[in-house]
Amino acid sequence: MKSLDKEEQKSKKNGKETKQSPVFTGNFESDLKKVKDLLGENSDILFRKFRLNNTKLKAALFYLDGLSDKELIDKFLLSSLMKPFSETDKEQIKQDGLKDFLKNNVLSIGEIKESDEPEKAVIEILNGSAALIIESVPEVLVLGIKKPKTRDLQEPISEPLVRGPRIGFTENIKDNTAILRNQGQNEDLFFLKKSVGERAKKQTVIAYINGIANQDLVDEIVRRIDKIKIDFLPESGYIEQLIEDNFLSPFPQIQSTERPDRVMGALMEGRVAILLDGTPYVLIAPVTLSMLLQSPEDYYERWIPATLVRLLRFLAAFITLYGPSLYISFISFHPGLIPTKLAISIAGSREGVPFPTLLEAMLMEIAIEILREAGLRLPKPIGPAIGIVGGLIIGEAAVSAGIVSRIMVIVVALTAISSFAMPQYSLGTSLRILRFISMLAASIYGLYGVVLFTLLFLSHLVRLYSFGVPYISPWTPLRMKDLKDFIVRGPMFLMKSRPVLLQTKEPRRKG
Amino acid sequence: MKKALLLLILLISTVLSGCWSSKEIEDLSLNVGIAIDDGDQLAEEMRHIDQVSSSQEKGDLAVTFQYINTSATTPDSKGGGQKQFTNVSAIGNTNHQNIRVISLREENPIMFHHTKVIVVSGELLKKIGIREIMDFYLRDSEARLSCLVLVSKGPAKDTLQSKDPAVIPSFRLLGIVDNAYRSSRILNPMTLAKIQGESYSKSSYLLQNVYTEDGEVKFSGAGIMRGKTNKLIGYISEDDLTGITLITGDAKGGPIPAFEKQSGKPMVYEIETIKSKIIPHVKRGKISFDIKIDSEGILSENWKDSKEPSEKIASEAEELIKEEMEKTLARTLKKTQKHYKVDVVGFDNELRIKYPKTWNRVKDDWDATFAELPIKYSIKVKIINYGNTDARS
Amino acid sequence: MLMNNRNKITTVQATIFTSSYILASGILTLPRTVVAVVKTPDAWLSVLIGGCIAIVLGVIMVKLSQCYPGKTIYQYVNILIGNWAGKTYGILLVIYFVVLSAYEVRTLSDVTSYMILEGTPAWAISMPFIWIGYYLLQGWITSLARLFEIVFPISVAVFLLVILMSTKSFEMDNLRPFLGEGIQPVLKGLTKTVFAYIGFESMLFLVAYMEKPEKAVKSTIFGIGIPILFYVITMVAVIAALSIDGVVHRTWPTLDLIRSYEMKGLLFERFESFLLVIWSMQIFSTFCITYFVAFLGISQMFNIKTQKVLLGLLPFLFLISMTPRTIDEVFSLGDILGKSAIILFGFIPLPLLILAKWKGRVR
Predict the structure, then answer these.
(1) Residue A343: which of B22, B25, B71 has the nearest Cβ?
(2) C241 with C174: CB under 8 angstroms?
(3) What is the protein's membrane topology class (chain A) (predicted)?
């Protein structure tokens, strides 16, 4: 990887050397050529030559087809530039110089930058701005007329709620920051802009609330993002993988979400959000295991149902992890531990099944994983149909063919459904991975294997940190204050303090 | 990297060589009941199975194992009238040997995790102490300590027979024990866990007796085990068992019939609550016991015409029932104290708790001492309810 | 990076640490060993008094450690009694902890292979166990403390549940008479019961790592108090259900208590597996602590890099755990360990404390 990067850098330098002077001179033709050379033969880059009216000066406008706002260019830019200047205007030009006059009096656009380097100007053009080159002016005026391609704000698909805002992030970072701003007027909400990516730069924004988030935490995140050396960042998953603490862990150490309310809640707790242009997934750090088991809805519902739902989720997580492995250990190691009647009926239903329990369980689990994957990749109208067909027919057929027992089908189905009950998809995935390990352990050592797995799993969890916060807090280190928002979602009037381990600047919530 | 590789190799090697103890549930015979008989007596009957190359003509123990026929219990094959259980017997000198003999004859090894009852033949218990017979099951970690121990007056293996193929005899025995709240003739279950303690303490105790005939069973009285030898010395009848449960306070739920003096018409009293106390006294080295029984219950059946006011019926009935109970007590005590000369009720326990010093003096020969002790009793009966008829106005 | 005190543990953690250390292999056999000596139903009283003695010894050690804040016994014993004597004591401690650690592994593999995994070789049972301990210890003392903080409450809950369910087979008569033969047999039992509290020495090391070392006394008292409660409940329940005559003859009486009842109408009828599960987790705790303390000793006394020591100890642990051949040898190894613990932690800390105080005053 590293050597490749170096080569690229070298070739870049070589490319630079072949070009002439790196700055604009004011010579129209040579300036035009510089820009054109840099842009190359790209069909989507449009340029329009014209004359600034009654000055005889040549001018050219570069912009990107599709990304720049054509209507704006046609109706306002070109028309105002081609319109004859009046006498008073000419006076003004003499006073201010042409460039400043244009900026001050003609170009009715909010975002104007000057650039004397063709390279920078080109980057701006590729970003969707328009570049205006004018004869005798040694700078290029960069006009922010980007009209980003974006979709409407929609309900987040991956995290639907029954009760809660229906708005989700989009692919446009400006919309996303705007959505966050819109969550409530707060002058302390800080957005730190960074552009990341060596070959294709992309904008990221680090959002936090000044006065709540611990400065060390913000600094650390900025440091880690600055250290990212990569060609291109297609999605925030790249950032996640590049800045996480432990790449060997099966657990997500940074939360990704499409929900602005979730991000805002995290910010208010003193966490930091990382937004990347081009993806609706916003990262939240640091994250703890309990956060991944929570849904914003827990807070919108009243505390009693919310608590019960949380308990249900913990149960689901438990079943996901241990369901099949406990089944295996009871059936093939400790038939004495289940009630006699159950033992009899299981033994009866397994009568004639040719495989050992592990193989049986593995077969069914893998079948279900394939079904899940297939259901995801298929076009939307077919997906659910395939799920039903696969699940019902394969399950039923496997049972009547005597390959698997009925009870195994129940266990596997229950486990699969439980894993989908996780409010965060990524957590469900990691639990599913771990489930296979626990099944293996159970098939070697029975219940003792399950204990060993648990110890290994917990040992890993207690050693895991996310940006200096113990992953498994607030379970341990035990902070009584944080416990009321762990398994139990305490009533609102109790939720007055922010998580202790985040070491926020302001530990108590206002009000 | 190297470390990861090492771990991987270790993991793979364990996985590949693993599964030492794994044994699928359907490959095991799910044992639910064991009957232990005297091998000498059953030898003739069982000869045909073991005659092939059996090293000994007869053995001390004839053990019958009952296991579930799992293929008959699946929902698909229901109604086939298939027997849900299989009994296999073997004769040998010890329990463990017998089990291994079974392995020579059956497809699947036997598993004892679900063993619910062990029925021991009374004849065998007269010869061999229960500690010896049960030692294997207590030592082994498979059999559960919650397993019931019963005595059978006849051949124990017959208690594991049933005419109805849908009935699993071991479960039937277990179910009957659970009916204790319905009858005063069922003892508190004696489990393996308790057998351990009893067989090492010197005190005598009772084991529930099962009577069997032609595939039907009935709980009938109890076998008396002498504490010193841990052997059976005799039986007490069902009626006498009521006396025992009255003293121990376990008679809850049992009906006590009484007969009206003139007409002989029965009245039945159902015990709702019963408090009984054994109070030991030691005066100048002389030991004596008082039994106090205090019971409340329901008049559950009354054949007599009830024109009289209910108060009168009640007091009459109370008196009759009290007399009936006293009779039962007297009979029971006579049987155990005078006839068998053993203390199976637990007088020793009360003495041990109240007068530990005296107890230490007499404990070595307690049963003999007990036979000579005076025992007094007083009974109080109160009818608190009449069911749905004859309520007081 | 938020520095959440990676090398310090909270007071609650210290308490749980001590409790986890104490509660281990003993809980399954304690009723037998004590009743065998006491021979009356008052054995539980003996356990209670034994616990109080352990608390006193524990507090002595805390006071000793508090004289040298931030230092473990390995570091301050040199200052206190001179380099050679200190080193000797330190090495004895290390040997003791290594053997104790191996002993825990051995008990685990014995019970597991007998009770639930018949046929699995002992090495296969103990090997992954030791490896997981090694993995956990790389996270240093905070990881240990955190793991215990998770495992211990679960253990307590399951334990209480399982014991409470056994009340069906309680017979109060088995517990009476109270002090029928006077206090004499109870005192005789102390020789056995103090062994059960081995682990109270954890404070010799823990104080150095506590966030608030001034609260060490409190956490010692609670840390030993919880096991006392555990033990007394166990003793009472086991004796009440199995009677003293029964207890003496059972190898693992606590397990037998759970095996002696069935609950109908629940998902599970039998619960000894639950007990075995939490028990093996507690064994893991004790194993990890002793392993950790042994490695701490070596690395602090000889200034060796921690990773090397940690890995280097592994084969020793494994081999020592494989040394005893019969279960009798295992139990007698336990006895030897108990006796040496009494010498190492019962008799030595008090003179050390007096010495430390005296030195402090002279200065």
Answers:
(1) B25
(2) yes
(3) Multi-pass membrane protein
Look at chain A and report how many structural domains it folds into.
Answer: 3
- Inter-CA distances, A418 with A296, A314, A376, B40, Å: 19, 10, 18, 59
CB within 8 Å of A69: residues ≥ 6 apart: A145, A146, A147
Q: Is A211 part of a structural domain of the chain?
A: yes
Say yes or no: A25 and A138 in one domain. Answer: yes
In chain C, which residues have their Cβ closer than 8 Å to the Cβ of A477? 4, 9-10, 13, 142, 145-146, 149
Residue B20 makes CB contacts below 8 A (sequence gap 6+) with C117, C119, C120, C121, C124
Residues of B in contact with C118 (CB under 8 A): 21
The residues spanned by each domain of chain C are 11-346
Which tokens is B135 given? 């030692």
User: Which fold would CATH assign to domain C11-346?
Assistant: Amino acid/polyamine transporter I (1.20.1740)
- Check if A359 contacts B (Cβ < 8 Å): no
Q: Does A353 touch chain B (CB under 8 A)?
A: yes
Q: C132 and A455: CB-CB below 8 Å?
A: yes
My answer on whether A131 and A181 are in the same domain is: no
**So what's the pLDDT on residue B48?**
54
CB contact under 8 A, A344 and B22: no
Q: Which residue of A has its CA nearest to B115?
A: A340
Low-confidence ranges of chain C (pLDDT < 50): none
Show residues of chain A in contact with B14, CB under 8 Å.
444
Chain B residues within 8 A of C127 when measuring between CB atoms: 10, 14
Q: Residue C5's closest chain A neighbor by CA?
A: A468
Nearest to B21 among C120, C249, C261 (CB): C120
Q: Are A200 and A331 found together in one domain?
A: no
What CA–CA distance (Å, rounded) separates B268 from B303? 9
Specify if A481 maps to a domain: no
Find where tokens 């009870």 sit: A407
The CATH architecture one would assign to domain B241-385 is 2-Layer Sandwich (3.30)
- Cβ atoms within 10 A of the Cβ of C62, count? 24
pLDDT for A12: 45
Contact A448 C273 (CB under 8 A): no
- Tell me, yes or no, whether A43 lies in a domain: yes
Q: Which of C140, C102, C104, C108 is nearest to C122 (CA)?
A: C108
B158–chain A nearest CA distance, Å: 23
pLDDT in tens, B370-384: 888 888 888 888 888
Residue C52 parent element (H or E): helix C43-66
Confidence class for position A13, pLDDT limits 50, 70, 90: very low
Confidence band for B392, pLDDT divided at 50, 70 and 90: low
Say whether pLDDT at A448 is over 50. Answer: yes
Residue A85, Cβ density class (10 Å: 0-12 exposed, 13-18 middle, ≥19 buried):
middle
Specify the domain boundaries for CATH 3.30.300.210 within chain B.
241-385
* B197–C242 CB contact, under 8 Å: yes
pLDDT at A319: 92
**Interface probe with C: pick from B145, B203, B250, most Cβ of C within 10 Å:** B145
Pair (A436, A308) in one structural domain: yes
CA distance C4 to chain A (A): 7
Same domain, yes or no, for A325 and A454? Answer: yes
A151 domain residue, yes or no: no
Most confident of A25-29, A136-140, A394-398, C179-183: A394-398
- What ipTM was estimated for this complex? 0.90
pLDDT in tens, B225-269: 888 888 888 888 888 888 888 888 777 777 888 887 777 788 888
Same domain membership, residue A447 and residue A422: yes
- For A375, the domain range is 299-470
Per residue in B173-207, pLDDT tens? 888 888 877 777 888 888 888 888 888 888 888 88
